[in-house]
Design brief:
single chain, alpha/beta, 2 domains, 12 helices, disordered N terminus
Length: about 325
């Protein structure tokens, strides 16, 4: 009899806990939501977050508050969210640098098995750029110069074995050049380093470089996308200059594992409306980014596929 009562009591507690979680999901959100950006100010993720969160209150009934947590190639901010209460109130603006490449290559950070997908917002075509006074005017001339001056070309990356670093290693392998690689915490910091002449070349999303390109302070050499950018029509693709590499820097909303599905569903539905909002569209396109929304299921499949391909690429580069 005592065992039966204990089992019944446990069932009541379990039911009560489930009911409470469901009730919380129904009421969600009842307070502001924090969106963690795991990179520095002025980078493409920071710019996207400013646009995206502008209309959050309209579609969620609560504001989204942006917090910057740079460091560790994006793993610091990712850790904050991964360890947060899975209640939907602490989210990550994820990216392939810290949520695909680092977990796949180094086993650090949080990949598709470690966090829950809410949606993908957009991506930036990535451009290889230098300074106007560089001793080369084209991508091909840069490669020729690097071969004539082994090890003198300095590349600014956003972290060791991150997406930019992996892409540059791939370019080095294809072209046969040698270069130094200097890591920075985010695209904003690497842009500052390029402008200050501390590095000779950097790869960054077009949105990060666009203002400086328009002002003539940075010279684009190639865009690592499947086609030319309408905002940079004279800049050739990597394929056109002999480097068949595509590097698209995406941004996605991610939640801690264990977040109740009804909360994920609510966030996903609101995010889709937010991405379609005219204000958000205008701001994101102004940054030179491409809106390419994916819902939770579609993005999760994409994310797993990318993880597998990055892991395979890194293993092939490390084995050489």
């Amino acid at each position: 009899m005592k065992t039966t009562l204990n089992v019944a009591a446990a069932a009541v507690v379990l039911f009560a806990g489930t009911a409470t979680a469901q009730d919380n999901a129904v009421d969600f959100p009842t307070k502001p939501i924090t969106l963690i950006i795991p990179s520095g100010a002025g980078g493409s993720h920071d710019l996207t977050s400013r646009a995206f969160t502008t209309v959050a209150n309209q579609y969620l009934g609560q504001p989204m508050i942006v917090e910057l947590h740079p460091g560790g190639g994006g793993t610091v901010g990712s850790t904050v969210v991964a360890n947060a209460e899975p209640d939907g109130y602490t989210l990550l603006l994820g990216g392939n640098n810290w949520n695909t490449t680092l977990p796949a290559v180094e086993g650090r950070g949080y990949g598709p098995d470690d966090m829950m997908a809410v949606c993908r917002i957009n991506y930036s075509p990535v451009v290889v750029s230098t300074l106007p006074d560089a001793p080369y005017d084209t991508f091909e001339e840069m490669i020729a110069w690097a071969k004539e001056h082994p090890g003198e070309l300095v590349f600014g990356t956003t972290g060791p074995w991150g997406q930019a670093d992996l892409t540059w290693k791939q370019i080095m392998q294809i072209t046969g050049i040698e270069s130094k690689v200097v890591p920075f915490d985010g695209g904003g910091a690497s842009t500052v380093a390029l402008l200050g002449g501390h590095v000779n070349v950097a790869t960054n999303p077009t949105g990060t470089f666009q203002t400086q390109i328009d002002a003539g302070a940075i010279q684009p050499l190639a865009i690592l996308d499947s086609e030319r950018d309408p905002d940079l029509p004279d800049v050739p693709t990597g394929r056109e200059v002999g480097v068949d590499v595509v590097y698209q820097s995406w941004r996605a909303v991610l939640a801690p594992n264990g977040t109740p599905q009804p909360i994920i569903d609510k966030l996903e539905a609101a995010c889709e409306k937010m991405v379609q909002d005219k204000t958000v569209v205008s701001m994101i396109e102004k940054y030179g980014d491409v809106i390419q929304y994916m819902g939770a299921d579609e993005f999760e499949e994409f994310w797993h596929d990318e993880y597998a391909s990055h892991k395979a690429l890194a293993e092939s580069l490390q084995s050489r």
